[in-house]
Each structure stands twice: as structure tokens, then as C-alpha cells.
Amino acid sequence: MTYCNEILELPLAQADHEIxxxxxxxxxxxxxxxxxxxxxxxxxxxxxxxxxxxxTNKYAEGxxxxxxxxxxxxxxxxxxxxxxxxxxxxxxxxxxxxxHAGTTANQAAYFTxxxxxxxxxxxxxxxxxxxxxxxxxxxxxxxxxIVSYGVDRETExxxxxxxxxxxxxxxxxxxxxxxxxxxxxxxxxxxxxxADETGAVLVTDMAHIAGLVAGGVHENPTPHSHFVTSTTQKxxxxxxxxxxxxxxxxxxxxxxxVFPGIQGGPLLQAIAAKAVCFKLAGEPEFKIYAEQVIKxxxxxxxxxxxxxxxxxxxxxxxxxxxLDLRSRRITGKAAxxxxxxxxxxxxxNAIPFDPxxxxxxxxxxxxxxxxxxxxxxxxxxxxxxxxxxxVLSSPEDAMTARRVRSRMADLNAAFQLYxxx
Length: 421
Ligand code: DSN
Hints:
Blueprint: H1 3-9, H2 12-15, H3 17-32, E1 34-35, H4 45-51, E2 62-63, E3 66-67, H5 73-90, E4 94-96, H6 102-113, E5 119-123, H7 139-143, E6 145-149, H8 160-170, E7 174-177, H9 188-198, E8 201-205, H10 210-214, E9 227-231, E10 242-246, H11 248-262, H12 268-281, H13 284-306, E11 310-311, E12 320-324, H14 332-341, E13 344-345, E14 347-349, E15 363-367, H15 369-373, H16 378-393, H17 398-413
Parallel strand pairs: 1-13, 5-6, 5-7, 7-8, 8-9
Antiparallel strand pairs: 2-3, 4-10, 9-10, 11-12, 12-15, 14-15
The structure holds D-serine.
D-serine binds at residues 39, 102, 130, 180.
């Protein structure tokens, strides 16, 4: 063997001990901690195999049958399969599976129909929206005039009358439906009615709920939207990546926006993994998974409410519970830290009309997608709620954190993942 080939054949542990060791540490963290970050999941081994495959070696700029490189006969088949599966899964007229990430998918939809200076109406970040829905430090806040809608102070649910009135006043080019921290169902038909009335294009960002939509437990935004954007790694349980769906009238322009507009070579290993994810999400087992995600979030929310926690909007319709911690006299930041010490991973999150700064917050966002992938059910959600209550009732007590951490590791051990990895 030549020197060069020897390097190519080395396993990671020998080629780079430092990175290999850190991956082992992260594997151990995932093995022992209860994963409640609402945007995370445990992907099937088949998805990881595709994403870690030799497809990483290939360039394939362009679209199937219009590639700018030779040797694309197999990778363009993979891309075609991913496109067809995405269209079938969500009932879309057109799909682009090349976007590398959710923000890029949103950028693709916005750039297809908006010019700098146009107006965009989207959900406020501190009431559930996403950075790419108009944050001043995001490209959306820099390029567009942002008008924001929020939730009703009493019900903490989207105030559709306010959305309609803001749309009539501001005549946005684009209305964005969809959120990153909103525990309730979204009325996409109502959003479309407002968009049609005011001449706006409706872009739905379904990243958080894509798996629930695929599993038939949340209304599908596709028939109501001009564009639907999504990541694949959240409730859809696919690789890190994204895609955009749209109606036929926008198809050619969307494809031009993605390539050559905002991206170069697509990540074929990610596209193959997306294809696998779309296949698995169309199977009957995935429907059972999605139903359990909803049941688990409801059970977690109910158990926490019974223990005196206040849930933003009073409950949940999806995979997510948003806790208002003000009555527990602890900030989101502190709660995230002490729960992590106790083996429970979550994230601080602003609640509507939050008096705290975004880096501190009064809320905690919890999600059921990852623990459901482990096989946990309602009984385990009660266990986890008890653990959260114990830790947040004595946040300074290291003994409590240690005791809960050991219990959580035992709970996870009964629901092992990736046994052979
Ligand atoms: N950062 C993701 C989330 O946690 O919701 C959204 O991109």
C-alpha cells in the first residue's frame, strides 16, 4: 500500500484520536441523558449509514438530468427518489431537496418571491417564531421590512384577527406561518385566507411539526401554502438538512434560487439520508410513532401541571410543552443548567411577554420526539415530570441532582438505542 492509501484506510479512532474520543463522550451523553430538546431526535441507523456514506465524495451541481459534472448517473437517481418521496409524503406539486439547513430553506422560499425592501409578516421570535422569521441580526431582518404578529395575552395562542389586521395594514409580500416554540396546532387554512385576501404569498415553516404532519397527527400545511419549508432532523427523524415544497407555478424559480442562487454543490449523502427518512416516515410504523409523540407530550404536560407548573397556553396539541417557570422562582437559564446536571437535557426559551432577557428567559421548552424514539410511553413521561419537579424544587441541592441523574440513566438503560453502534 502507498502512504496515501494507508491514510485513507485508517479508522477514525486511529486517524484522529481527539475527535474520536469526543464522539465517544457524546455517545455516552446521549446514552445516559433524557433528551427533551423539542427540535432533536434519534435518527434511524439507516439514515446515519446513508449520511456517512461514500456519497460525500461526489459533486453534482444542478438538478437530475441537468448536472454540471460527469459520473452523476447514480446520485441523480438518488435525488430523483428523494424528490418523489417528499412530494408523495406531503402531497406537494414540487420539491427541492437540496437546502442544507432550515434557514437556507426559508431563504430559498423568500428569495424566490421577495426583493430587498419588501415586507414580510411573521411570528415574533419571543412569542414562538424563529430567527429566520425576521430577527434584526438575521438576513431577514437586514433585507426586509418586518411586521410581526404574536399571541393573544390571555389565551397565549395565535391571534388570527391580529394577523389579518396587520396583513391588511402592511400588505406583506410574504406571510410566514410556523414556529419554533408554539405548543398549539396552527390553522393553515386561516393563514391562507388572510394571504389570499391581502395578495400575499404564504410560506409555512413546518420544521418542528413535519413528522407529525407525515404521521397524520397534525394538519398538513401543503394544500394551503404556496411554499412549505422544513428541516428533516426534528420530528421527521431524518438527517440534518432541509427541503422546500411549492406549487408548480413557483417550481422553476425556486430551483433557480437554490442553485445557482444560494447554494453550490448539494450534499448528496444528506440527500440520500433524506430519501431514506421520507421512505420511513411514509410507513405505518411512523404513524404509530407520531401518535405516541403526541400522547407523550400530553402526558408530560399533564403530569407537570399536576405538579404545579404553568404550561404556556394551558397545554399542548403537538410534541412540545412550554413551561412558565416564574412561579417556581427560577429562570429558564438556571433551570436548563440544573436539569442538565441531573441528566435531563432541555432548553431555556422565552415565553410570551417574557420579562427576562432572551439569554435568560422565564421559560423552558420540552419536547417528546426523542424520548418517544427510544420507546418511552406515558408512564415514563410521569417519571420524567417527577424528576423535573424534584430538581427544580431544590435547584441548589447537588444530592438531588446526583440522585435524579442516576435514576434517569437507569430509565434510559431500559430503552437502549443503537445497540450495535
Ligand atoms: N434551533 C431550532 C430549534 O431548536 O427550534 C430551530 O432552528
